[in-house]
Amino acid sequence: MTSVTSLFAPVEADLQVLTENLKKLVGARHPILYAAAEHLFGAGGKRVRPAIVLLVSRAIMLDRDITPRHRRLAEITEMIHTASLVHDDVVDESSMRRGLPTVHSRFGNAVAVLAGDFLFAQSSWYLANLDNLEVVKLLSEVIKDFAEGEIQQGLNRFDTSLSIEAYLEKSYYKTASLIANSGKAAGVLSGVDRTLVDNLYGYGRHIGLAFQIVDDILDFTGSTEELGKPAGSDLKSGNLTAPTLFALEENPLLEALIEGEFSEDGDLEEAIAIINQSQGIPRSRELATHHAHLAVEHLASLQPSDSRQALIDMADYVLKRLY
Fold first, then answer.
1. In this structure, what DSSP letter does residue 66 have?
2. 262: left (phi over 0), alpha (psi -120 to 50) or beta
3. Strand boundaries in the chain, DSSP class E
């Protein structure tokens, strides 16, 4: 399987600079906020989102170097993503993230909420300094989408009538919007034509959906060590994802277990067993594959390059995380 490190080879040096810059960009004067930022940006994340921004930028620029504004956009993208994770962990009461204690479990809820707000505010300030109104609008919409997705997820807990379409909409808000709009923003900063800008958005939208669907499958098939959190966490909290929604079409007992919110001992384990024995996971794999293929189709108008190939290989990497 292609490793994420080799996948990002065309932008490896760019990502090293980005990692060094992130802590400086936070610039928190308060030691607790700075400690929270150091904890977050030193947590060894894969940096998938800024890597996609950098790959898109290099795939467009080709024989020219990317500009400081492209680099700053990638940094802003990672700051926004990290801010959303901090808030998500508070809402979900998660104690672990990437195998390390979450900000709220280490520093308390109040600091975690404020650290997330601070990162959103800092990213917005740097975003405004790009001096491109369309890019400001694109990334501001992402922050709005995060909130919309979190609200939808909260309102739909244990709702067995949730449709696959509603699940995909929530997945777009929570995951794909950032990848789609930051990729589109890279195109806007590069001054490419609108067709290509729209295709970059389409790539990000579909690769983001594939990524989220695969994550949701791994919540059932992955180990606690791989996931950095207990397997089955989403189901336990009432967050119904693709494998569960497909399995609900087959087994009425699953509906009763979910609507009872796993109140009896063994209910959660029984529900997980039902999902694993159903067509829920194979059908979810098909859905992820569909979106990964759509993502690649949106790259057809880019000229061949190592960066374009890495974006294509990203779709393969996303799916192979399942095996």
1. P
2. left
3. 96-97, 100-101
How many independent structural domains does the chain possess? Answer: 1
What pLDDT does residue 229 have? 64
Domain hosting 142: range is: 4-320
Question: Which of 46-55 are b and which e, b meaning 16 or more Cβ less than 10 Å from the residue's Cβ?
Answer: ebbbbbbbbb
* pLDDT for position 260: 97
Going by the DSSP 8-state scheme, the letter that residue 160 receives in this structure is T
Residue identified by tokens 């389409």 is 202
Instruction: Give the residue carrying structure tokens 């995380």.
Output: 321
Give whole-number Cα distances, 22 to 56, 79, 283, in Å. 20, 8, 39
> Who contacts 142 (Cβ-Cβ below 8 Å, separation ≥6)?
80, 177, 178, 181, 182
Angle in degrees, CA 276, 163, 269, rounded to 5: 25
pLDDT of residue 192: 97
CA distance 305 to 11: 12
Question: What pTM value is reported for the model?
Answer: 0.93
State the Cα–Cα distance between residues 109 and 87, nearest whole angstrom. 9
Question: Looking at the predicted structure, is the pLDDT value of residue 43 above 60?
Answer: no
CATH of the domain at 185: 1.10.600.10
pLDDT, average across residues 130-152: 96
Q: Give residue 80's pLDDT band: very low, low, confident or very high (50, 70, 90).
A: very high
Per the rule left: phi > 0, alpha: psi between -120 and 50, beta: everything else, 261 is: left
Q: What is the pLDDT of residue 227?
A: 57
Q: Taking a C-beta distance cutoff of 8 angstroms, is the pair 47, 19 a contact? A: yes
State the Cα angle at 213 between 157 and 272, rounded to 5°: 55
Out of 84-98, 138-152, 235-249, 295-309, which region has the weakest mean confidence (pLDDT)?
A: 84-98
